[in-house]
Each structure stands twice: as C-alpha cells, then as structure tokens.
Amino acid sequence: MTATETDVPGVRLIEPVRYTDARGSFMEAWQQDRYCEAGLPAGFVQDNLSFSEKGVLRGLHYQHPQAQGKLVSVLRGAVFDVAVDLRPSSSVFEEWTAHRLSRENARQLYVPEGCAHGFLALTGALVHYKCTAPYAPDCERALAWDDPALGIDWPLEAAGGAPVLSEKDAAAPRLADMPDEALPGTERTRSARV
C-alpha cells in the first residue's frame, strides 16, 4: 500500500496492493496497523454504501460540530471524488483536491475531519466509505458544489452534462453565505474568508 499526501493536508490518496490472476483479484481494503502507519485514524465507527447513477453529484457534505472523517472506496464504476478544506486555520483553507476513484484502479481517498466531501458519478457507481464518527443529522452540513469561490473543475461532460442533484444539494449555500458557526474552527472572521 502507498499513501500519498495531496495538496490538502491530511487528505491522502491510498493505493492498496492488489493481487490479480486468472480468477480475479484480492486486496486489503483496510488493515488497521498499516493504515495508521500511513496517518489514518484507527477509530472508524460506521460504514456506508451509496449507489449513484451516472451523472449524480453528491455533495459537498460535512458534519460540524461533530466532525466526521471518511475513507472512500469505489466498489463498482467510477467517480470524480473531491475534498475541500474548510478548516479556517489551514494554510489551504477553501482549496480542493480531486481524484478519480474506480473499481479498476482500487484507489481510496481519506478525507479528514474539517473537510467537505463530494463526488460525481462518471458511471453507475457503488461507493463505500468508512466514517470516524456516526451520522449526526443535527450536524449535517452542505456546501454548494458549484461555488465559484472554490472553482472546482467538475468533469460534467464525462458524466453526461448537467449533474443530477438532491434538493438539499441544489439549495446548499455558497461559502461566503455560510455563518461562521457552520464552519469548523473560529480562527478566521468572515472578512478573512470573502
């Protein structure tokens, strides 16, 4: 397994070792000691599965104040997976990183607490994510996927054009419109963010 730090501190691209032969393939999707050595937390408490048709965009989601880290894998299909740094004390606050995750490449993305996460399904996709905290409806937050301040370069054409969104994601606020208490940390003021 290799773990590569991305441009957003704490977000790691994981490439597990996969063994293949005429029968198929085998890999470890989680091995606590090795993943902890690579800087991931040991305390995952919930696993989630979601299926999305091609063109579905989910996100950008995060929890606050009960933050949640995620280890994301694709079991079927392919997604364009995005993490956005929402930690006001971070040197890369408001910056993002994106990676193509698929069944074929077996890559995983670790999205730490304090970052928003979202993905665009490039095909029908079955996505698995391990979470460091349970789902907390009162802490659920969403950020506009198309916020121009973030400038995420979503590959919409590869997914068939305009994304398919939930009502919640379609109505999510832009970063400049979010109250400070909806973001992790209080180190920066609104004037520093806009």
Write a structural description.
By secondary structure, this protein is mainly beta. It contains three helices and 13 strands, in the order ββββαβββββββββαα. It has a single domain (43-193), classed as Jelly Rolls, CATH 2.60.120.10. Helices cover 7% and strands 38% of the residues. It has a six-stranded antiparallel beta sheet with strand order 1-2-10-7-12-5, with no helix packed on it. It has a five-stranded antiparallel beta sheet with strand order 9-8-11-6-13, with no helix packed on it. A two-stranded antiparallel sheet has the order 3-4. Strand 3 (18-21) and strand 4 (24-27) form a beta hairpin. The protein is globular and about 55 Å long. The termini are far apart.
- Give the count of structural domains: 1
- The appropriate CATH architecture is Sandwich
Q: Oligomeric status of the shown chains?
A: single chain
Give the strand order, joined by hyphens, for the main sheet: 1-2-10-7-12-5
Q: How do the SSEs run, as a string of H and E?
A: EEEEHEEEEEEEEEHH
At the first level of CATH, the class is Mainly Beta
Biggest beta sheet attributes: 6 strands, antiparallel
Low-confidence stretches: 187-194
Which range best describes the helical content: under 10%, 10-25%, 25-40%, 40-55%, 55-70% or over 70%? under 10%
Gross morphology: globular
Structural class assignment: mainly beta
- What would you report as the Rg, rounded to the nearest angstrom? 16 Å
Mean pLDDT figure: 93
- The number of helical segments is 3
Distance between the termini: 39 Å
CATH topology: Jelly Rolls
The CATH homologous superfamily corresponds to Jelly Rolls
Number of extended strands? 13
